[in-house]
């Protein structure tokens, strides 16, 4: 996700509706809200606007008595990287023992790239609020690949005004799994835990060829503060989960049974068992995981998708066929991760004629240097290791489609039984490529990207005709929104239509407002923006603007938190963690 951009904050609407009070009259009865319409703002035009995160957007609230109220949106900041809260540095990298990692001058390594936010209450309305957030990248200053931090924030909420404040932060311990590798997007699970991600999993083939110079080993040396440490690539590239106990202690795990890939985020269907992933990079794959038990992702069945194209128009459409890769538990796969090398799993060759004659298959995936072809064959008895440690490579060998490009985040629309998925760039493997080993996806290039909607259905079967044990299986997908590439940059340097999305990244759906919130991470708009898209009216409204080159990130739609609603949102480079208070949109007076 992170493209080394400059970014900043977002906004908040903490303005209450005006009301007239007659001390001699009985209190006015609440009038229910009929609808909420986000009203977009213009693109920035001045130098000050272009260099600032700001909003001039608003929302029109229509009540059922026909009256209307307009509420402006504003940003409230919670924390900035490098800020000290309760004696602790926001965004600082930490080692295996939870100590801040410092350079030779004694300065901490601090991330300027906060990403995912999960804000929630541990014990309902009477409980404390906590927020888990990711920091995606660390300026390395010549020290090599640094471990990336996750922090647990203690949050205090004013129950009347909705205003929030972070009072304490603590690093989250992932020492049982070798630390965290590039945490990107994340979501709050239906069972009230934080589900995170490890993006851009390291290539185990390249690591084995030269472990000493690998970024995995540099990571291990920094994390363990040991110059002799050697890394293990199979520990990274997994879904993470953080549970917060009532006493405020965090318990963190990695779900090895959900496969290993470039996780953007996970979204979970209403059965609390079926999950879908975003796999970021070029020549990537779409996956589905069906857990054995609800609210428990420690064991389940992994599937990979095959795109059977039905249209090449307006971003394209396809029927989705699911290929079963295998079943496993976290414990089984973690044991394999600790004891297996790439060469234990696959035979390789560079001779195409030999490969064709001896059962090898040519594949092209992000696993091999971002989309280089390779000839592979799974060694006997290593199918489980291949499925869960080399999920994309194995999926390609099994016939799944490995041509998606910059697949980013996903979010669920529960009421309509749909999942939304962002494709930041419809390019490379998603266009017609006669030279690729397989060419399932054949679309017109849209460098501005697209958002797809996927329909969920019961009674679906996998490629082998076996019933999939879920009532929430994606059966098709089609483009819902597309950007528009300009034939030439405009006078300001914009390469995409300013009235449409460009390179969508983080998305979050609000059931209450029937609105898809969209954050851009683009080099095609001079200023990245955040959008509100109403899935009923189809209205797309620009609601915030980031500074030149900056990335909007970390969106979380919260429909009810102690009677308040929020849009959590952050920024990268420079970073900020903040929120939009949407509670005024629910006012009925």
TrEMBL record:
The keyword Nucleotidyltransferase does not apply. InterPro entries: PhoX, Quino_amine_DH_bsu. Coiled coil: none annotated. It holds the Pfam family PhoX. Keywords: Signal. It comes from the Bacteria. Residues 1-25 form the signal peptide. This is Alkaline phosphatase. It comes from Neobacillus bataviensis LMG 21833. The lineage of its organism: Bacteria, Bacillati, Bacillota, Bacilli, Bacillales.
